[in-house]
Amino acid sequence: MNFKRDISTKTYSGFALSALLVLTILNVLLQNIPGKVERAGEKLLELNAQEGVANAVTTVVVYFRGFDTLGEIAVLFIAALGIGLMLSSHSKVPHKEESNFILQKASKLLFPVIMLFGVYVMIYGHLSPGGGFQGGVIIASGVLLLLISDQNFEIPHSVISALETFAGIAYVLIGLIGLVVLDRFLGNFLPHDISEMGMLFSGGIIPLVYIVVGIKVGSEMSLIVQNLIKRNDDD
Amino acid sequence: MIETFLSYLNQNSTITAMVNIGSMVLFFIGLFGLLTHRHILRIFISISIMEIAIFLFFIGSTFNKAFTAPIVEEGYTNIAVMNDPIPHALILTAIVIGMAVFALGVSFAIEYHKLTSRTDINEMNEMGES
Description:
The complex is a heterodimer.
Chain A: H1 3-31, H2 41-51, H3 56-64, H4 66-87, H5 101-123, H6 132-149, H7 157-181, H8 206-229
Helix pairs in contact in A: 3-4, 4-8, 5-6, 6-8, 7-8
Chain B: H1 2-9, H2 12-36, H3 40-61, H4 85-116
């Protein structure tokens, strides 16, 4: 059976179908003139002011959709677990090529700066663009720099597991305290006055939850990166 | 001549149309790669490109020149002219999930190649279909 001919007929039929799809969607889009579209976020922006958080995106992610973010972190954890199961082997080999002198020295210089920037983005997530996910990924990129510059560098497994466990438990505990003190999961039980909007200590539990999310995302991304780099190709 | 063209480009409707059509073109670039390539890593990359097109479409769908970022700051306190925060929050979630799923897929592909030294999905016959 000739696979090539089979694929090409499939491809052509797929493209005829996709051209139809393009025309349909374009038709729909050109009828949607901006300005006529109802904005769903209007009510959320009004509610956001009551929580005393400057960044409305943070409020939506952490507070209004806080339970969903907990599920998202669970998905990230399961993906990291799957990658660990797939790629980790008992004999971790250092990768073969030694990095050059400039990379070795510059990574030592840059690593603290990248870490500081990641922590800044994480802590100021409720005041400026950024937050836990972005800060966590920046921290993981710093770890990636260390991993590609130093052959023998390895994140201690106990540190990663301690951070991840702490972050996961802290998220659920904050939510449960809100359930006990107020009436619902992830209730904002800390003081959140609108007069403090724009200060570092404002918004009640929202910055705390985003810092916890940042710790979890940073440790999981670092683990994923380490597993992908330090896999053993020989066995 | 150039001024009229630039002012035409600077209209809200032009920018929205450009983002919509551009994200769709990107989507179909991804779909083309998905349909024509049989290498498993290329298929994952095509799926990522399609994902990115959807992200672009969502973010661009709320674009308006008159709106400010949904962050309350000094001088930017009018809620009525703030951008909609919902697509931003949704896409923030989707980017992280997409990246995690891509990494998981790549790790599956690496392990499959290590076991069978095959990358072409037409040659996958573990279930004995043909």
